[in-house]
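Methods — Computational structure assignment.
A single polypeptide chain was analysed. Its primary sequence is given first, followed by the predicted tertiary structure written as structure tokens.
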Amino acid sequence: MNKIYIIGLGRVGSAFAYELADIGYDIKYITDRNEDQLRETEFKNNTISISSNINREFLSGSDLIIISVQDKFIKDVVKRIAEFRIDISNKYFFITSGAVSTEVFYSYEFDKDKLLSLHPIQTFDKISNENSHLLENIYFGIEGGHKASELAIGIIKNLNSNYINIPKDKKYLYHSACVISSNFLITLLNISSEVMGSIGIDKSKTFEIFKPIIDRTLINISEEGLTQALTGPFERNDVETISNHLSSINKELPSLIPFYTLLGMETVKVAFKKESISMKNVISILDLMNEYIINESSISKKTIN
């Protein structure tokens, strides 16, 4: 693989640009709408050509085109590339989206065997720099053609990372799992901060307070597995404590009842899988949850009416 063209130098695209260049890949061309960002970006390879618009010469001169723009812009980028009507028979096209599949190319004359969705299972909160190593020692979700997969697997191995194959028709399910694991973790801690704030604790200290228990939980999961790492009232069938949780939340923060009951019901499944509670225990806890779910539903209907 010789010359690489990256379209989109945002949080994900910049990671690919810096890290692929760092391990010896030839990042030859970069396009991004943000001209200031392009000018401020510095690479070890000073021969990189840049543009603020998709460039015909860049497309013609590249072997691999990595499209790393927001999902809502991918179709437009693909359409624009197709409109150039250049010879793309020997070119590979990767998109870095977790949700959009390679079907986005199918309306045009692209070689399906050389198309790939290469999604890093990682979080990117800012533009990368030469010291970023966000693509190392992670998993990538890949979906696409056989030849493209072979090329991607080589890149992934050079990044000391691993990969999983995602069925084309399951991309949105796969991406939802990524969102649950990353985005919803932030939401979970934000809810914890709301609860802490309701008892007079400074919300800004939430992460500081809970970081040790989060770190230990992650260590336990790593060492013992998801199921065996579960502790707490659901795992020990402490129905009285769970009931008091529900009663207190219903009184102080009733909007969180759906959240607690839903996660509680899922946690019961984990506890049963761990074999720390019996089916009889499961039923009693679920019955307790249902009392609050039914009550919450009745309140909502009254509010609407």
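Note: The longest strand covers residues 26-31.
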